[in-house]
């Protein structure tokens, strides 16, 4: 007599599958899933600093489309907060951005300070306008032009 159990191939049950062979498995302590809680395209996936960086890049692209010769030798950076001990000859103590002219082969630089700008903004559109105004005013300082010449909507 032959048993039907021996003729058919062994079926894998979910209990017999090793944890690392499962498609989704829990973390090493067995308390949570090892996958994202939300998709990477969802708005919550981006952090505040990531959204701020994206807004700065968008404004730089917009300005570069209008003035490619102005931004040819300009680097832009984002810092969280300004330095804690500003030098005594600086006129404004609480600043949102700084511009550094080109010097000895180093290109001109614009530094935006994320936290002070976010604290002044009332909403997302206000934040975009503040970033735009700060970038335009720093470019105006670096090039010697009026901010209205670079962006007619500056300060509105």
UniProtKB/TrEMBL annotation:
Domain of life: Bacteria
UniProt name for this protein: Peptidase
Source species of the chain: Bifidobacterium catulorum
């Amino acid at each position: 007599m032959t048993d039907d159990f021996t003729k058919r191939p062994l079926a894998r049950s979910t209990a017999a599958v090793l944890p690392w062979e499962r498609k989704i498995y829990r973390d090493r302590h067995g308390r949570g899933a090892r996958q994202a809680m939300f998709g990477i395209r969802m708005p919550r996936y981006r952090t505040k600093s990531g959204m701020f960086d994206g807004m700065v890049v968008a404004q730089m692209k917009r300005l570069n489309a209008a003035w490619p010769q102005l931004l040819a030798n300009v680097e832009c950076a984002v810092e969280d907060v300004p330095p804690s001990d500003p030098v005594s000859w600086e006129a404004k103590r609480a600043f949102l951005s700084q511009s550094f002219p080109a010097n000895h082969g180093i290109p001109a630089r614009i530094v935006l300070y994320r936290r002070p700008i976010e604290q002044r903004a009332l909403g997302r559109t206000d934040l975009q306008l503040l970033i735009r105004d700060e970038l335009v005013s720093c470019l105006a300082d670096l090039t010697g032009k009026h901010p209205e010449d670079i962006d007619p909507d500056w300060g509105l």
